[in-house]
Amino acid sequence: MGERPTLKTKRLILRPHTLDDAKELQRLIGDRAIADTLQLSVPYPYEDGMAEEWIGSRQESFDKGEGVEFAIANRQEGYLIGGIGLGLDKANARAGLGYWIGKPYWNQGYCTEAARAVVKYGFEMLGLNRIHAQHMTRNPASGRVMQKIGMRHEGTLRQHFKGRWGQFDDWEIYGILRSEYLAQKA
């Protein structure tokens, strides 16, 4: 698909991850509080070398049309805050939105700001028809981000995933359609 995009917002730059991010990525995503609310596809503990391996696989994922991931960084100083991305299903013109913010940066509106930019990119640049997301019921802050960017609650998947520590978690499902996005924008 070519060069991975960079998006800018008032306070953030959403850019491809680089190997320079690896150490801070490992530190932030390796926090137990972050791992607790992510799906099991993100390992815990996040061991040495995992960040570099993951960063190295992102261009291939993008080239295959499987997804686009962004490092969420402070626009002024460049430090890493978190990550956000779209898992693409091109055949159905839809994507799953996923995100995480490092614990030192919680409750500052960064995730909502980044999510708005990525949803705009998905609809306006990728031509998607639908973007959906899900969060653990016990992580309502993630759901508030989904609501703030215009997603509608579509349902609850009861005890849908067995969590990292052996508990079964309910997941809330949200989605936004292209037509809804355009109506909000108007």
Describe this structure in words.
With 186 residues, the protein is an alpha+beta fold. The protein has a domain at 7-131: Aminopeptidase (3-Layer(aba) Sandwich), CATH 3.40.630.30. The protein has six helices and eight strands. The protein has an eight-stranded mixed β-sheet with strand order 1-2-3-4-5-6-8-7, sandwiched between helices. A hairpin with a 4-residue loop joins strand 4 and strand 5 (94-101). Helix 1 (22-29) packs across helix 3 (50-63). The longest helix has 15 residues, at 110-124.
Uncertain residue ranges: none
At the first level of CATH, the class of the domain at 7-131 is Alpha Beta
What would the CATH topology of the domain at 7-131 be? Aminopeptidase
What distance separates the N and C termini? 30 Å
Strands of the biggest beta sheet: in what spatial order? 1-2-3-4-5-6-8-7
Rg of Cα set:
16 Å
Structural class: alpha+beta
Strand content: 25-35%
Approximately how much helix is present in the residues? 25-40%
- SSE sequence, one letter per element: EEHHHEEEHEHEEH
Coarse shape: globular
Looking at this structure, what is the CATH superfamily of the domain at 7-131?
Answer: Gcn5-related N-acetyltransferase (GNAT)
Count of DSSP-assigned helices: 6
Count the E strands: 8
Average pLDDT score: 95
CATH architecture descriptor name of the domain at 7-131 = 3-Layer(aba) Sandwich
Tell me which oligomeric state these chains represent: single chain
Query: How can the largest sheet be summarized?
Result: 8 strands, mixed
